[in-house]
Amino acid sequence: MTTVAPRKLAHAPHPYFRVDAAELTIGGVAVSTLAERVGQTPFYAYDRAAIGKRIAELRQALPPEISLHYAIKANPMPAVVAHIAPLVDGLDLASAGELAVALDIGANPAHISFAGPGKTDSELHRAAAAGICVNVESEREIRVLAAYSRARGIRPRVAIRVNPDFELKTSGMKMGGGPKQFGIDAERVPQVLRDLAGLPLDFVGFHIYGGSQNLRADAIAEAEHKALELAIALSADAPAPVQLLNIGGGFGIPYFPGEQPLDLKAVGDSLQPLVARAKQALPQAEVVIELGRYIVGECGVYVCRVIDRKVSRGHVFLVTDGGLHHHLAASGNFGQVVRKNYPVLVASAVDRAVTEQASVVGPLCTPLDLLGDRMELPRAQEGDLIAVLQSGAYGLTASPQGFLSHPAAHEILV
Ligand SMILES: *Cc1c(COP(=O)(O)O)cnc(C)c1O
Fold first, then answer.
1. Under CATH, what is the fold of the domain 2-47+298-413?
2. Per residue in 249-291, pLDDT tens?
3. What's the gap between Cα 222 and its chain centre?
4. Which ligand 1 atom is nearest residue 294's CA?
5. What is the pLDDT of residues 399-408, one digit of tens each?
6. From ligand 1's centre to the CA of 325, what distance in Å?
7. When you count CB atoms within 10 A of the terminal residue's CB, does the N or C end of the chain come out lower?
């Protein structure tokens, strides 16, 4: 009998970036060249072609009847949004700041929707004036929009964001089920729909979002089918036919050792019967899936430079000019319960033979400023470039850039 030693958990292989002459390339350009182009480290680099491939893979896997929306909050860099907008069917916003980006890059307001709790009167007015769909999260938002409608003589389009009576199981972040600040509780929605009939608002449909960062096709499929059935049940009280049904998304990407990529084909296959059921029960509804990180997350890297190579009591520290102030998520402080390492490479010498155990840290005076904890890396020197992969989503704009007043990171789309 043979025994097999348990394999050390590894990061999933990266789908898009090539290594050329021992250097990581982004959009076909070596990282050291990109650093020269940018004129500084640290920076984020996003790969235009990889984003295009990603969306093509989604289109290939999902039924053609499904509309694909991009959730801007994952990466709101205007150049990135402008690149993605023509490749998807719509944009989903979470603030009036994102609305400004969407309008500036020329996105069609007919295919923009705006969700998020605590929309101010001003944000609701701006959304209505822009002619986008507001996913209302409370009865107050409905009152504010109705008053605006009367004052301006327009009819804003509204969808009801429903806080469902289920959650997206095994999600990194649950955003439905139980008491939540998101949406209107499902059991309250029938009354809200009956009240809506008397208001100067155009009801267009429902938005039902169960959660984020899910790597299990079966859990995603279950939540999407439940979202559809909930929408069908609620439509009985709707003042108009459902034209727009956003069933969420939550497609995850592998960040940590041992995680496997989502089985996209299985998700797509599970949507075939859903599309058929929607056609029969809600014949006028456009069914939307909204994705943020799945579209951009694997298409970006964060690049910083080793400033100091220190050995402290036998432990190697690569002290870089980048850290949690630019990349909070990689430091493990963006909602993670247990800290794990993102994939980190010595980008200027990916296949340098000698390996050692080293920790990659930043310049901040806090032990939280950790980009890689005791990783097996090629031996890096001062001046080497370090890349954190899986950094295209929830990077710079999800980080406390002002913390410790270090220079800002740049962003480029290659
Ligand atoms: C954050 C968010 C998204 C995007 O989530 P990803 O995990 O980036 O796909 C989509 N919809 C809503 C309502 C959100 O709040």
1. Lyase, Ornithine Decarboxylase; Chain A, domain 1 (2.40.37)
2. 999 999 999 999 999 999 999 999 999 999 999 999 999 999 9
3. 20
4. 9
5. 999 999 999 9
6. 22
7. N
